[in-house]
Amino acid sequence: MNHWIIVPVLLPALLAPLLGFVMRHDIRLARAASLAGTAVVAAVALGLAVAAAGDEAQVYRLGGWPAPYGIVLVLDRLSALMVLLTSLLALIVLVHAVVTGWDARGRHFHALFQFQLMGIAGAFLTGDVFNLFVFFEVLLIASYGLMIHGGGRDRMRAGLQYVVMNLAGSTLFLFALGTLYASTGTLNIADLALRLEEIPVEEAALVRVAAMLLMIVFAVKAALFPVQFWLPGAYANAPAPVAALFAIMTKVGAYAVIRVHTVVFGPGVAATDGMAGDWLFPAALVTVAVGAFGVLGARRLLPLVAFSVLGSMGTVMLAVAAFTPAATTAALYYMVHSTFAAAALFLLADLVLARRGSEALTPRTPVVQNGLFAALFFAAAIGMAGMPPLSGFLGKLLVLDALRAPGEMTWGWSAILAGSLLTIVGFARAGSALFWKPAAPARPAPAEAADPPPKPATAAEIAPLAASLAMLASLAVFAGPIAGYLEGASRQLHEPAGYIASVLAEPEED
Predict the structure, then answer these.
(1) In the 3-class helix/strand/coil scheme, how is 412-424 assigned residue by residue?
(2) Angle at 346 between CA 341 and CA 348, to 5 degrees
(3) How crowded is residue 44: how many other Cβ atoms within 10 Å of its Cβ?
(4) Are 83 and 125 in contact (CB under 8 A)?
(5) Mean pLDDT value of segment 367-396
(6) Is the dihedral of CA 345, 350, 356, 357 positive or negative?
(7) Domain range list for the chain
(8) Over the stretch 275-313, which tens digit does the pLDDT of each residue have?
């Protein structure tokens, strides 16, 4: 049994209480411990991704109890990829929060950050849907604390809407789990896949109800239409570094759809065959449209970025809704790309707003290092909009190529191409207002009343943003090997016999 599998969950879970109760009064000690812990998780995640490169899933059985009776963590290519993505993003965001001083605005930032990392990693590694619910709740609690970090009435109001919406989703999740357990007697993903194949179609009404409830819950987490309205307000009002970390949050919902509705309610299950795709595809189409028009109509910087995240999720879910190996590969590639693209935009927004003083997309006096920020904004914007040479262009090409069915091709291609055009126009307008159409400088105030000029961004403050953009460039340069890894992940999902056999196999003695 590979004991390293539990490290991305266990290490943050042990570190968070120490940060919250022992180190909260010493910011330097808390920073050192949090950075070291996150770096270790990233290193372990990289090793797990290498270990998962084979076709066999690896299983960690807590307490040595076999599935489906015990709790299991499962490492395959998909879970390893998502844990690695989470840990790299977390390390980038944490460094930004430390060097800019965001973490010092509240005593519990680092503890909440580690709890968030634990919940995300656990959601990706768990092998049963009940513990998926448990880790969702850990995410909800930690993310709410991070979202209101620093205080403010607008932030509290957006946070309340965020938590109410997600609590409603959690309630539906419990209903779905109860219905599913009543129908099958198990909640282990591998065991569910076997038992649902044995249920006749005429006796599967409760299974269909459970599948639809789970789809609604995961749609809430992924901010998919018609339950997408919480995302723009939550992301636009959260602290920018926290919003950058939240770039992975919607991917948890997308991951849950891919995992559960491929392995559990996949094509081999007659009772639910076609249900997920029939609902997901039109919802994703509208989500792309809402995101694109939101970018075009945004009048403030953070809502602009938030709506671009919404549009990118619609693109991901268009590919997911096809439920084919090629489309899943495209969805995973674009999911990784959009995570780093969104993080780069939020980190850049934080640096710009700290020096500009206003997020309104109106001409103002040029900020310090205006040319540098303009270039970085251009790079991040073309990444999010899907223009060459960065990975967004390749990602959208993969998605378009995967949508080959007649109905998918007409509507999917139209939505993606039109949405990309609107997004490009929206970012061009925003960049022009922020950097290239400065207002005439105001008459200088008396020396005694003048505010000190903003300080230029240091190399340490630019480094996390540069790392995010470097990830986009790396995804483009190494697109071939990365796509090969993702194709293996898609093959494991759509041919789940190996996953099921590994999870349900009798444990070997260590």
Answers:
(1) HHHHHHHHHHHHH
(2) 95
(3) 20
(4) yes
(5) 89
(6) positive
(7) 3-439+462-498
(8) 666 788 999 999 999 999 999 999 999 999 999 999 999
